[in-house]
Specification:
Enzyme class: transferase
Number of strands: 5
Oligomer: single chain
Low-confidence stretches: 1-5
Helix content: 55-70%
Mean pLDDT: 78
Shape: elongated
Protein name: histidine kinase
Catalytic activity: ATP + protein L-histidine = ADP + protein N-phospho-L-histidine
Keywords: ATP-binding, Kinase, Membrane, Nucleotide-binding, Phosphoprotein, Transferase, Transmembrane, Transmembrane helix, Two-component regulatory system
InterPro entries: HATPase_C_sf, HATPase_dom, Put_sensor_dom, Sensor_HK_TwoCompSys, Sig_transdc_His_kin_sub3_dim/P
Strand order of the largest sheet: 1-2-3-5-4
């Protein structure tokens, strides 16, 4: 019953877009058809190319207007495409406009938007009015025609037909709204290659910022921690040297104490250096993911079953990304899921690496809810990877990371 209500409900923005979108659709469609027609007529004259170039710039402007209308009324996010290049020189700039794929895609959108606009207006205005006429047909017929009229099958069938068509109005508007969203995302947004470049630029900028932060943190830890330990070790060794120097002979008790202290300080410094270098390149990865992942799951407080099928070894960069992804996901299982058991599955073959972590916890994991998944998705995107999350409330949670084996 809930799904039926959802299907039959229409937001106010969808009604408004169907009604007010018709004038804009007529304007845009007429503009695009006029440009194509006039451009074809002028193509053999010296005015043809300049006319088309100016018209394409106008199409971009209309595309911006349509994109904002779709975003505001249909609640569909459509990213703005890149601006056209502006090389030096009038001829070069005209060539850039004429070869601008965004402008040509916008022109195609304006042509296709015309029938959708007419259909939307018909579904939102003409169809309800027609349904009202059908429902009230027995009354209208008798009001318009003087004298008695016999009751016919048309009198009985027209209200039923009107009610059936009226019940289809919300679904028609929702369907046309979905078509308008899809068309706007397809033709008014950045091209697939441009969108991918943007995503990679954003991911690499995020990764660079994180690496810079890690480098500064490592520098601070070396300065404040390891360097201080080495200074303390040097002081201890200096005191031990002084204990060997007295004329009466070395103070063996004091010397033994200082040597023990120096040994402890050396062990602490080595442990500190191991902790710091572990974040740069985990030593466990020297033997590949087949050795590193079981060792990682062994340290998890939640029991983790491991299944590996690593037919080929990925690049070192990809291995590091998979390793840190597994570490982050297992940490989330221990901290946030409330799970009693988990499973880690990794396979590499056919040029792809897939890492899947399942748990029987409470579910509800999603990007941007404080579990670090958004940052993890950005780091994976930097190596052309994707993160998929399936975590309904109540669980179970299944998170899959997929990356190429070669970068």
């Amino acid at each position: 019953m809930t799904e039926r209500r959802r299907y039959s409900s229409v937001r106010g923005g969808e009604w408004t877009f169907a009604v007010l979108g018709l004038p804009l659709a007529l304007l845009g469609g007429g503009y695009a058809l006029a440009v194509l027609y006039a451009g074809a007529l002028l193509s053999l004259t010296v005015l043809g190319l300049p006319f088309v170039a100016v018209a394409l710039l106008g199409a971009r402007g209309l595309g911006t207007l349509h994109r904002r209308l779709v975003g505001r009324l249909l609640d569909a996010r459509v990213d703005a495409p890149a601006r056209p290049p502006r090389p030096a020189g009038l001829v070069a700039r005209g060539r850039a406009v004429l070869t601008d794929p965004v402008a040509w895609r916008t022109l195609l959108y304006l042509v296709l938007r015309l029938p959708l606009g007419v259909a939307g207006f018909a579904a939102a205005v003409a169809l309800p009015l027609g349904c009202g006429w059908l429902i009230g047909y027995p009354l209208w017929a008798r009001l318009l025609q003087p004298g008695p009229m016999p009751f016919t099958w048309l009198d009985a069938g027209s209200p039923v037909l009107g009610l059936i068509l009226l019940s289809a109005v919300p679904g028609a508007i929702r369907g046309l709204s979905g078509a308008n969203r899809w068309l706007a995302r397809l033709l008014l947004g950045p091209a697939g290659a441009q969108q991918r470049v943007r995503e990679l630029e954003t991911a690499r900028a995020t990764l660079l910022a994180e690496n810079t932060d890690q480098l500064r943190r490592l520098e601070r830890d070396l300065h404040d921690g390891t360097q201080a330990r080495l200074v303390a070790l040097a002081i201890t060794l200096s005191l031990a040297d002084d204990a060997l120097a007295p004329v009466a002979g070395p103070d063996l008790g004091r010397l033994r104490t200082l040597v023990g202290r120096a040994r402890g300080q050396t062990d602490d410094t080595i442990a500190e250096l191991r902790r710091l270098t572990r974040g740069i390149h985990p030593a466990a990865l020297d033997g590949g993911l087949g050795e590193a992942l079981p060792g990682l799951t062994a340290t998890s407080p939640v029991p983790v079953a491991v299944r590996l099928d690593l037919r080929e070894r990925p690049d070192q960069v990809v291995e590091r990304a998979v390793y840190f992804c597994a570490a982050e996901l297992l940490t989330n299982v221990a901290k946030h899921s409330g799970a009693h058991s988990a499973e880690l599955v990794a396979d590499a073959g056919g040029g792809r690496v897939r890492l899947t972590v399942r748990d029987d916890g409470r579910g509800g994991a999603a990007l941007g809810v404080g579990t670090g998944l958004a940052g993890l998705a950005e780091r994976l995107a930097a190596v052309d990877g994707v993160l998929r999350i399936d975590s309904p409330p109540g669980g179970p949670t299944v998170i899959t990371a997929e990356l190429p084996t070669r970068i």
